[in-house]
Amino acid sequence: MNIKKDEKGYIIWWIDRKFMTENSFPKKCLDTVDGLAVVNKKHLTAYKRWGALSNNRKDIKDWIDTWLTKEEKEELKAFLKRRKSKD
Known about the structure:
- The protein is mostly helical.
- It is built from four helices and two strands.
- A two-stranded antiparallel ribbon has the order 1-2.
């Protein structure tokens, strides 16, 4: 996923909001126990790495490529597309 300079702030906001509102974000980190999604150590690692990340577009892209599922990337792209249509 390529990140444009004007999208960076929206991406940071979207990921921060996801961490605050969804216990299962990012889904790539979830395990299932008895059919229920549970957070594990990978989830905490993803959160810590996000918090320590610089605002560099390359670093953000690398984090997205490492931690987000294809569906989450598509959701992020759809969010960015909606934002562009409002501007």
